[in-house]
Amino acid sequence: MIFDNHLHTKFSSDSQMTIREALQAAEKLGLGLVVTEHWDYDYIDTKNYQDMDFRFEPEAYWEEYGSCRGSTLQLGVEVGLTGSSRKENIDFLQRAPFDQVIGSIHTIDMLDLYYPDFYEGKTKQEAYGEYLTVMAEMIRENPYIDILGHIDYICRYAPYPEKLMKYADFSDLLEEVLRAVLETGTVLELNTRRLGDRAAQKALLPVYRRYRELGGRYITLGSDAHTAENIGMNFQQALDMAAALELQPVTFSERQMLYCR
To answer: What are the C-alpha distances in Å from 54 to residues 8, 96, 119?
Structure first.
């Protein structure tokens, strides 16, 4: 079974989706799910854009969803990686038997990449360069993660007219990220959120091709859905891309990697 390995329900501050809604959507598509609620320990909303606290109590998460866990549903977490939260992240992961841990870069220097503040006074080359440099550092400093989430996350929100992260423009930095992934035994996520855009898909293809050339064999597929209608979004494009590059889709259960077939 193919799994959607990245989605958020009501335990994440930016989602109201219920587990029932998620399971019903997945059943219609014939997909398994790994729920990955947000844990960003030191997230600070410095501009008070909205009242967001990207933390949750894993005990409550397990109490409510544990009875649903089984062959088609695993319980994971998406951890925000920052230089100041490593100990807190590790402590948090010891509080519940998570099936899967995604590590993601959502903030840099306490600035949320979703908002304009991070990009002020920076060229695209500078902003993307800082993002990729931090990403490689965080992968190596947090080897407990199973998966690197959405390598192209910054492309969603950057304010530049041309948002694509083309391999040719950032080859050295992207290669450092890919080498960090391989050195730590981390799996690279193919986040499907932007794959409906052909230009975005074309820009991502050489990144994953280089991952394969360097020795990468495995990917997880993740929609990053926050609503039921986005579960499994653009999965056919992702599966076609994986097949073309001979990358094996996988999922995780009890922190052990399993092939998806």
So the answer is: 11, 17, 22
pLDDT score of 50 more than 60: no
Terminus-to-terminus CA distance in the chain, angstroms?
5
Inter-residue contact 113 to 153 (CB < 8 Å)? yes
Name 74's bridge partners: 34
**211, pLDDT greater than 60:** yes
Ramachandran assignment for 250, one of left (phi > 0), alpha (psi -120 to 50 degrees), beta (any other)? beta
Pairing outcome for strands 100-104 and 147-148: parallel
Model confidence at 53, pLDDT cuts 50, 70, 90, reads confident
Q: Which domains does the chain possess?
A: 3-259 (3.20.20.140)
Please check whether residue 215 is in contact with residue 180, taking contact to mean a CB–CB distance below 8 angstroms: no
